[in-house]
Design brief:
alpha/beta, Rossmann fold, 4-stranded parallel sheet, 36% helix, globular
Length: 334
């Protein structure tokens, strides 16, 4: 039987804490799958890069590599960038078969992990406002893929109903709309005395910090409303269980395909019709492995490239609503 190895493919960040948290997730996956060697790597900014992890597995004797995207939903990174890196590596080293698993996605374990984070915030609160009179705002990362963005809205709806909130709203940290401030300002008009803000993110980083900062800014505008912050997912045990399940799915050849019915690269999705059939390629070579910290920066592109790549280098198809009044620029410091 071919020796099996696991490759966890992350996005990458210049934030050292985010890199450490990703490493902790890889360790958690390793502890759940002790029968397999587990390596990890990033698309950009941080090291090791994905090919380094693949090298580690290959030189260690892996013949069948199960690669899983370390991401919540399948947008451009999971659908195009990571597969491009894997396909390139596979062509160079045909002796190691690479099988690609699916993203974490909508999963009961993920909903339970999210619910646990929200319950933690509720238990820590001394607010007299009951949950049934509290508004939940779920903040997604945001992508130029409406299928991925719609999943954030589905997460919000499942948490809203599952926990009994009085209302629920969704906003995003970038690329799509509404952004956090307009989303929270809208939520503040609905008459609730308490608003919980939950970044549906795996790891910390600039965006999570800015979500909390923008929450504080809107809270100052509405002193009569109590705004409370929910911790992001991080290495919750049920998140790690979901990662392990994705590996086992791919090994078994079961349910390891991403949703293609609403994939803008394959179907005529409303507003994104021009992107059908675009080449599968990675757009991260210019920032691959540049490292974390203030001393490591890519060439300047006019704004913060690390988050969502909402600019146009000539190889990104322009987002159809780039001039939307409620977004969709990535969160920035004011």
């Amino acid at each position: 039987m071919n020796k099996v190895g696991v490759m966890v493919c992350g996005h990458g960040s210049r934030d050292d804490n985010a890199v450490r948290e990703f490493a902790a997730v890889a360790d958690g996956i390793r502890s759940r799958l002790p029968q397999y060697p587990v390596a990890s790597g990033f698309l950009e900014f941080a090291t090791p890069v994905i090919r380094d992890g693949l090298d580690q597995l290959r030189t260690g004797g892996t013949k069948l590599c199960i690669a899983v995207p370390g991401m919540l939903f399948a947008a451009g990174h999971a659908k195009n960038d990571i597969p491009s890196v894997l396909n390139t590596y596979q062509a160079q080293y045909p002796g190691m078969q690479i099988r690609y698993g699916r993203e974490l996605g909508i999963d009961t374990r993920m909903m339970q992990a999210a619910g646990a984070r929200i319950r933690t915030a509720l238990q820590a609160s001394d607010s007299p406002v009951p949950v049934s009179e509290t508004l939940l705002v779920v903040v997604g990362r945001g992508a130029s893929d409406p299928d991925a963005n719609s999943n954030v809205a589905k997460v919000m709806r499942m948490l809203w109903e599952g926990l009994g909130f009085g209302w629920g709203e969704t906003c995003y940290s970038g690329v799509t709309f509404p952004l956090v401030k307009p989303g929270l300002r809208h939520a503040a008009k609905l008459g609730f005395k308490r608003i919980l803000v939950f970044p549906y993110f795996l790891f910390t980083g600039v965006l999570v910090r800015r979500i909390y900062e923008h929450t504080d800014a809107v809270a100052e505008e509405h002193p009569d409303i109590r705004f409370e912050k929910v911790p992001y997912l991080n290495a919750h045990p049920l998140v790690l269980d979901t990662f392990a399940a994705r590996v086992e799915e791919a090994l078994a050849g079961e349910n390891n395909n991403m949703n293609c019915a609403l994939c803008k690269y394959r179907e005529q999705v409303l507003g994104f019709e021009a992107e059908v059939g675009l080449a599968q390629e990675s757009h991260h070579h210019h920032v691959e492995g540049i490292g974390t910290g203030a001393g490591h920066h890519p060439p300047h592109h006019g704004h913060d490239h690390e988050h969502h790549h909402d600019h146009d280098h000539g190889h990104h198809h322009p987002y159809p609503h780039a001039d939307h009044p409620l977004g969709p620029r990535t969160l920035t410091d004011d």
